[in-house]
Amino acid sequence: FPGVVAYCMSKSALDQFTRCLALDLAPKKVRVNAVCPGVIVTDIHKRAGLSEGDYAEFLNKCKVTHALGRPGQVDEVAQAIAFLASDAASFITGVTLPVDGGRHAIVDSCQFKSFLGCCAVVLVSEGFESTGRQCSIDTVKEDKGRSHRDRGPLSPGPRAALTGTEGRSHRVCVFPGLGEGASPEAEHSRRYQSHIPSSRLQKLLLASGSALMALYNPYRHDMVAVLGETTGLLAIQKLRDRMQNHPEGFQILQERPRISTSTLDLVSLRELPDGTFGREYVRFLDVNKVTPDSRMPVKFVDDEELAYVIQRYREVHDFMHTLLGMPTNILGEVAVKWFEAMQTGLPMCILGAIFGPLHLSTRNIQVLVTDLIPWAVRCGRTAQCMMNFYYENRWEQNLESLREEIGILPCPTVQS
């Protein structure tokens, strides 16, 4: 097991998850171990011989048919299914992990902790009785006051350590996450689910290519994302440090909230009174026809915590548009980039701010230079750090009140 990250799951949820697999895959002649629920041997990367349509139907059935009694189990199963549907999942297998012998022996907790950081997932049940000296998996409280749960997008569940127990073992499903053709060595160097290990030379080539493509087409968000990851390490570290030294920012690093349609209740936000931050945010989404699901996952940042920081930066970008009152056209994007450049120091923001106007008309360049850039620069320099606000807890706050708290100055009235 080179590189294991534990994904804690309750026994009943794991049993239900296994039954979903057994019931739906059995007619397709896919083997599922029904004697010991949770131990599955199936090649997911090749869809176990299923057509894409059958596989999609299976996933949908899993999502809608399991009826679990305890609140929260539905989410546990849904998260596991979501991982299966991702590119990171190649196959599922399962074992009982012996501590002091056997093919897959793990000697002690130190050895197990050394495995952490790679793109693998273990679904852990509550355990069942067995003979012999077996192992259990317990969560580890991290340093610097972080909570024991690793809530980030980049690690599917809490990290774990291994301790020996007598006469007891835990059922596990192991999702190694090895893509077809990937080497075990490359897999072992992965730090989180979407991570792609790369050398300095590879990062340099990625940065050069993505910079040229992003300048040619500012709407190539994938290229903008790669540029930010391969050029902004020092800036990201400074952002992380600022968050660690701020109560609200530190809470965000602990809890690692995500912003997507699966984590936001957009219906409830639309029911908030006009003028509240939540209502104006969904109004921005509706008017500009954008979605919070459009943010690319981080791939080329090698530190897992820094990867979350830049992921968070991406996901609050639409909040910046809402707070600054800027649309998603090039004029609005350039203004936001000037604000973010002052706030973050990210090279991609600086490049976007400088070269973005090349795509504007002469009239819009004049508006940008005389009105928007001076305003955005002032806001960026005087406002509090944009990363230190837990926006998800401020939906009901008046938008103008939040702007005043952050230090965002009133936007000049311009016509593009």
TrEMBL record:
A Pfam family hit: Coq4
Assigned keywords, A-Z: Lyase, Membrane, Mitochondrion, Mitochondrion inner membrane, Ubiquinone biosynthesis
Region feature Disordered, mapped onto this chain: 139-166
Superkingdom to which the source organism belongs: Eukaryota
Matches recorded under InterPro entries: Coq4 (IPR007715), Coq4_euk (IPR027540), NAD(P)-bd_dom_sf (IPR036291), SDR_fam (IPR002347)
A GO molecular-function descriptor: lyase activity
Membrane as UniProt keyword: yes
Gene Ontology terms: cellular component: mitochondrial inner membrane
Biological processes, Gene Ontology terms: ubiquinone biosynthetic process
Annotated HAMAP family: Coq4
Protein name, per record: 4-hydroxy-3-methoxy-5-polyprenylbenzoate decarboxylase
